[in-house]
Amino acid sequence: MADAAVKEKPADAAEAQLTDGFNLLIDALKLNGLDTIYGVPGIPITDFGRMAQAAGIRVLSFRHEQNAGYAASIAGFLTKKPGVCLTVSAPGFLNGLTALAHATTNCFPMILLSGSSEREIVDLQQGDYEEMDQLAIAKPLCKAAYRVLHAQDIGIGLARAIRAAVSGRPGGVYLDLPAKLFGQVMDAEKGKNSLVKVIDAAPAQIPSPDSVKRALDVLKSAKRPLIILGKGAAYAQADDAIRAFVEKTGAPFLPMSMGKGLLPDTHPQCAGAARSTVLKDSDVVMLIGARLNWLLSHGKGKAWGDAPKKFIQVDIEPKEMDSNVEIVAPVVGDIGSCVGAMLGVMGNWPAPPADWVKTVTSKRDENVAKMAPRLMNNNVPMDYHGALGVLRDVVKARPDAILVNEGANTLDLARGIIDVYKPRKRIDVGTWGIMGIGMGYAIAAAVETGKPVLCVEGDSAFGFSGMEVETICRYKLPVCIVIFNNDGIYRGTDVNNASADPATTVFVKGSRYDKMIEAFGGTGVNATSPDELRRAVNEAMDSGKPTLINAVIDPKAGSESGRIGNLNPQSALKKK
Question: Is 0.90 surpassed by the pTM of this model?
Fold first, then answer.
């Protein structure tokens, strides 16, 4: 049991060992290897955070619960264990709930632990401190939600949360902890016996042999095959099997942004630089841990061209099949088991048609050659390509570093420009395409992997979580933040002709974000040219010290909404 177990003398003067809800939750977390908590202290969980820290759990305190939640979510992606976020009740819970919904949408295992008001007062709506029916609010936005009312149920409650978070398609789980629960006292031995060590929380789900054969038959029949690797494939940590399978097929592969690095972006089969060609002209597409959502234009429409398509899908969730288009060969199971099963029966696999491979390779090489001069420019002020060309070289020299990336143009262009060489080394906004994940992801990536982190941010995206630079400095984390500062959202050149107020997309001109981190003892650098940026980033990555580089980008650089401007409706009157 935790060292802080409560001792009391009963009436008969015989000393009895007692424990309480605080200690039972701590012991349950430790028993299941959940040794890191991301959160914000406050009523009613302040003492729990202190006691967890004293018991050997690492507790990282953030400046905002949403950022702590994002940290917990990406910790789940990187480790395959539920990341744990701890929040106070009501407003704090709601702040964390955004990250919980994000984790569920992205299939990241996460548990949100939130203190809450007492049930008898909440149910009668009598006006308790931060009164809110948190369980009811959480349920529609996560994979599962539970409430623990009695100390003897803490072990079972946490066990259910762990299983729900990691089994099948992973996701977010909410665990409601009313304030009275923490102070409940019970016999220590009975408390110990009530704890549950979760065994085989995410059991393998083996695909049927028929589905494996069907998928391989369809793939073998292809004249223009394509394999798409999603973040589900990266999450599976079946890296060797996936690489062996892709290489054995000889087919071009297209990595989604967080699937990059399963095979290096410089691999001869990688079609990342020929994305438009392979989507339009392929005839058989195998999806491995990728979904046909908006990021892939739902598998239809202009992006996919007129060539008839047959889709093979490998996914742990059977309901994902046929979500947008017909899947002629569904393979249901965990990625590792599915890819392993296919490898086991492939035999002597024929090479894909040489003309298809030549077409893809030629288009890729043509696009790479066309892009190269833009990435080597030394313009002042910098444009996106010149700045990202520098960061491309930095990542190439440091393939073990974690790249965190968010923004509009900063995100869209970096996806195609910065090559990734190892799995789970690029983490970004994910399925929703939201802003604000940057600092939380950077903190968790440094904590969970021990590797240096390069966090590339648009100036707008940074604003959602920028105060967490203090958290980075407080914990002395090896994080280098590069802010692409073009004075605004998309561009810093919009003008408001109606009043003296600045345009809605424009920020303070010439902002010096580097001064923020200096206020907390970190290193700040203002970089105005690619050469200055290269020197500053290399020094920061070598030092391992918290650093923020204000990369001054031409305010005219960038486009409206990045590459998804078509999703931003235009006024009909404006068009006329």
Answer: yes
Crossing angle for the helix pair 438-449 and 65-79, to the nearest 10 degrees: 40
Tens-binned pLDDT, residue by residue, of the chain (576 aa) = 455 444 444 444 345 799 999 999 999 999 999 999 999 999 999 999 999 999 999 999 999 999 999 999 999 999 999 999 999 999 999 999 999 999 999 999 999 999 998 888 888 898 888 889 999 999 999 999 999 999 999 999 999 999 999 999 999 999 999 999 999 999 999 999 999 999 999 999 999 999 999 999 999 999 999 999 999 999 999 999 999 999 999 999 999 999 999 999 999 999 999 999 999 999 999 999 999 999 999 999 999 999 899 999 999 999 999 999 999 999 999 999 999 999 999 999 999 999 999 999 999 999 999 999 999 999 999 999 999 999 999 999 999 999 999 999 999 999 999 999 999 999 999 999 999 999 999 999 999 999 999 999 999 999 999 999 999 999 999 999 999 999 999 999 999 999 999 999 999 999 999 999 999 999 999 999 999 999 999 999 999 999 999 999 999 998 887 667 777 777 666 655
Cis peptide before 10 (omega within 30 of 0): no
Residue the block writes with tokens 């305010």:
555
CB 149 within 8 A of CB 85: no
- CA separation for the pair 463, 488 (Å, rounded): 11
Using CA atoms, how far apart are residues 164 and 139, in angstroms rounded to an integer? Answer: 13
Query: What count of other Cβ atoms lies within 10 Å of the Cβ of residue 6?
Result: 14
Contact indicator for 312, 327 with CB cutoff of 8 Å:
yes
Tell me the C-alpha to C-alpha distance, in Å, between residue 468 and each of 38, 161, 283, 432, 512. 12, 28, 47, 22, 17
Report the relative pairing of strands 83-87 and 110-116 from DSSP bridges. parallel
Q: Which two tokens stand for residue 576?
A: 């006329």
**Interior/surface letters 390-410, b for 16+ CB within 10 angstroms, e for the rest:** bbbbbbeebeebbbbbbbbbb
Two tokens at 404?
């965190």
Q: Which residues contact 245 (CB under 8 A, 6 or more apart)?
A: 339, 342, 343, 346
- Structure-token pair, residue 465: 């979580």
The DSSP 8-state label assigned to residue 152 in this structure reads G
How many other β-carbons are positioned within 10 Å of the β-carbon of residue 46?
A: 12
Neighbours of 443 (CB within 10 A): 29
For 76, other C-beta atoms within 10 Å of its C-beta total 29
8: which strand partners?
Answer: 16
Q: How far apart are CA 524 and CA 545, in angstroms?
A: 11
| Calpha distance 128→239 (Å, rounded) | 51
Distance CA 178, CA 149 (A): 7
Q: Which residues contact 263 (CB under 8 A, 6 or more apart)?
A: 229, 242, 243, 246, 247, 253, 255, 269, 270
Residue that the structure tokens 């590459």 belong to: 563
End-to-end CA distance of the chain: 72
Which of these, 376, 370, 385, 379, lies nearest to 558 by C-alpha position?
A: 385
Instruction: Please say whether the beta carbons of 287 and 279 come within 8 A.
Output: no
